[in-house]
């Protein structure tokens, strides 16, 4: 199955979402950004390829590199991205709950 990225933006984070604040240094942040950028497919002009509307007005789907399966899903991608930023993640990262339970909020 072809990979696609889902991006949703917020002006304010809704109360119903679980959010953890993770501190990273500048170099690790740049590694995270580089990883994210490298996962999007780009067109001949170097722009990301938007492939459709998301579930809400502030969300979109984008064409991405890689493949999607039960063993490689959005949660494994998230954990891989966090590892690029030197954030400790669980050994098994197939569920978002595993990642969220493993993360310690560092912005209290």
Could you characterize the architecture of this molecule?
The protein is an alpha+beta fold. The chain is built from 3 helices and 3 strands; from the N terminus they run βαββαα. The chain has one domain. A 3-stranded antiparallel β-sheet has the order 1-3-2, with no helix packed on it. The model has no long low-confidence stretch (mean pLDDT 86).
How many β strands by DSSP? Answer: 3
The low-confidence parts are none
Query: How does the helix and strand content classify structurally?
Result: alpha+beta
Along the chain, the helix and strand elements come as: EHEEHH
Sheet bearing the most strands, described? 3 strands, antiparallel
Shape call = globular
**How far apart, in Å, are the first and last alpha carbons?**
40 Å
Number of helices: 3
């Amino acid at each position: 199955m072809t990979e696609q990225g889902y991006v949703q933006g917020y002006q304010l984070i809704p109360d119903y979402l679980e959010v953890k604040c993770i501190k990273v240094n500048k170099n690790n942040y740049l590694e995270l950004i580089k990883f994210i950028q490298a996962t999007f497919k780009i067109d001949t002009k170097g722009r990301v390829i938007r492939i459709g509307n998301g579930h809400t007005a502030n969300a979109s789907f984008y064409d991405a590199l890689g493949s999607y399966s039960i063993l490689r899903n959005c949660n494994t991608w998230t954990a891989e991205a966090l590892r690029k930023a030197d954030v400790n993640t669980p050994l098994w990262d197939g569920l978002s709950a595993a990642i969220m339970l493993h993360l310690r909020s560092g912005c209290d």
